[in-house]
């Protein structure tokens, strides 16, 4: 029976993530709450940690950074009952993201250092199965998001580049995500030509990716690049982007 409840809870989280990635944040919140309720009824710390971890991510994306920090801290309390440094590392990154959006640079840096130290302990048999995506590339990408939120665009771009270069080829969605983030960081850092090149690479991956979130991010980057349209590289990207949007709305 416990395995049945755990499976139902993990299914709710999976459905919640699909809603989150497609921009249906209220639906995602409901599914994560369902998983959390299941975890608490059954006393399942692994499911509870997963539900709170995703809730922290959702809260950050929804513009509720204080809730993101609280959810990450709750996830940490549940995860301490497990034996997975990698899980604690990911949760620390969720906390760092919330603190970055609160402009709490010191708290963010402390959470990042904790995440790096925990990640450095390596994988183990107790790592949850759903964490297969969490490798060095994801670590770099999530750190890039923190520096971006803090307005340190140069450092954000540095980590985003590493995330792209370290990502395994079969994780096409994550390559598109980190490449789009790199483009956004570069344009904010005053490098429109490099940003256009990165955005163009991300655009080329969109036909392999079904993520409304990434498409909205690329749309925002294109909007930020328009004032630089006199640059030939930027103009070429914007023309390709507009053509792609006409053929299949981005």
Question: Layout of SSEs?
Answer:
Layout: H1 2-21, H2 25-42, H3 45-61, H4 65-79, H5 85-101, H6 105-119, H7 136-149, H8 153-166, H9 172-188, H10 192-205, H11 212-225, H12 232-247
Helix pairs in contact: 1-2, 1-3, 2-3, 3-4, 3-5, 4-5, 5-6, 5-7, 6-7, 7-8, 7-9, 8-9, 9-10, 9-11, 10-11, 10-12
Report low-confidence residues grouped into runs of 5 or more: none
Topology order in helix (H) and strand (E) letters = HHHHHHHHHHHH
Strand content: under 5%
Q: So, the CATH homologous superfamily of the largest domain?
A: Tetratricopeptide repeat domain
- Cα(first) to Cα(last) distance is 44 Å
The structural domain count equals 2
CATH topology of the largest domain: Serine Threonine Protein Phosphatase 5, Tetratricopeptide repeat
What keywords describe this structure?
250 residues; 12 helices; 2 domains; TPR-like_helical_dom_sf; Putative tetratricopeptide repeat-containing protein; Serine Threonine Protein Phosphatase 5, Tetratricopeptide repeat
Question: How would you describe this protein?
Answer:
This is Putative tetratricopeptide repeat-containing protein. InterPro entries: TPR-like_helical_dom_sf. It comes from Streptomyces himastatinicus ATCC 53653. With 250 residues, this protein is mainly alpha-helical. It has 2 domains: 134 residues, Serine Threonine Protein Phosphatase 5, Tetratricopeptide repeat; 115 residues, Serine Threonine Protein Phosphatase 5, Tetratricopeptide repeat, CATH 1.25.40. Helix 3 packs antiparallel against helix 4 and helix 7 packs parallel to helix 9. The model has no long low-confidence stretch (mean pLDDT 94).
